[in-house]
Amino acid sequence: MAARCLWRRLCQGSSFPVNYASRVMQKQCFLPNFDLVGGRFSGSHVHTEEPKTNPLVSISDEPEILYRRLSLLVKGHDKAVLDSYEYFAVLAAKELGITVEKVHRPPKKIERLTLLKSVHIYKKHRVQYEMRTHYTCLELKHLTGSTAAVYLEYVERNLPEGVAMEVKKTKIEKIPEHIREPVWDTLPQVEETEVKS
Amino acid sequence: MAVDQDWSSVYPTAAAFKPASVPLPIRMGYPVKGGVPPPKEGNLELIKIPNFLHLTPPAIKKHCAALRDFCTEWPSALDSDEKCEQHFPIEIETVDYVSAGTSIRNPKARIVTLRVKLSNLNLDDHAKKKLIKLVGARYCKDTDVLTIIIDRCPLRRQNYDYGIHLLTVLYHESWKTEAWESEKTEEDMEEYIWENSSSQRNALDTLLQIKATENVSNVTKEDLLASEVVRNYRNSVIALKNEGETESNISQYKESVKKLLNIQALP
């Protein structure tokens, strides 16, 4: 996308004001290599440029997607299962070095329905059923694209049966190139002919 | 069963509860009258419920140690939300849905929400006002955030492209000034402007009449406009109209009117 190409150009440090470029340089040395959809990279150490010798890890040149927040909402019928799952997800996040911002349990929702007890007549005798849905919400902060992909795959594969999950990803991006300056400044003559005709 | 055996090899993946493999004295179920819950042998309740025996803390640590090679670090220069906002002003929010059912697809997954603060875009005064008029309810004045929810196309990537296209079009259209924009009336204005308003006319007419009855030499409108009492009155009226009625605004208006009309008697 345009944002990714922009990030690439950012790494090369062109066409940006000076103070911003210095921040870019600072960012550059903290982020020696990025990866993306194709490859994974071990970026655990700042100064060593060479990746650990893990044959499955491959590095790609494309810039990293940045997620400001990842919100996992887990829904289930059994509270004990959700509690165990929350313990597992929080421990996995801590082990992978992801900051867990907040873990809260929204109140449960009960859906009730009233049906006739008998197949034929007996309107006064009914039976009531209810479905209880318990929720747990896990909010993670500041993830890179590859870390998010790894964590989500691990956590989603171990989702127990009967439990559903919604993952809300908030991605942050730079303003694309074509919105920096209004295009009317650069095309005066074309605009005039259009207006006249 | 040996005490030091490796549990992650007994339950490497999610599996049903096997009472012979799990050496714990678990009982589950509704107890018989005067009795205890049924034991684990042949207990259907224990088999039905999903168990986390394959995800004990040592097993999780082992898995994460193997996965850590594939993770990258967050750039330490972006440690706070304000810095993220400053360098990466646009926020794209997407939702993924995971559930078991006849189909893994969820039609709500194609919705994309685009949020951007207008202060981060390169807009001048006229462009900002025009953009706010164009988007209408999608702009929140308190937080200065423009939120666009796109669910027009069937695929998420298409919706994202459309969102960026919309933002581009809005931005460029707001910089254009059309011929009919000069017909903007006072009702269309977003904020109150004192110059050429009825309040200015009334104040100046009153002052001119006062001066005429006192038979002072002709003072021009420009002198009156530049005088301090009229400036005070102008500021207090603008504050009242734009910010609403507060204690300080109303008292400021009272003081300025008293000075304008030269009334000292009232407190």
From TrEMBL, chain B:
GO cellular component terms attached to this protein's record: mitochondrial small ribosomal subunit
BP-aspect Gene Ontology terms: mitochondrial translation
MF GO annotations: structural constituent of ribosome
Domain Small ribosomal subunit protein mS35 mitochondrial conserved: 104-176
Pfam families given in the database record: MRP-S28 (PF10213)
Superkingdom to which the source organism belongs: Eukaryota
Annotated InterPro entries: Ribosomal_mS35_mit, Ribosomal_mS35_mt
Protein name as it appears in the record: Mitochondrial ribosomal protein S35
Gene name tied to this protein: MRPS35
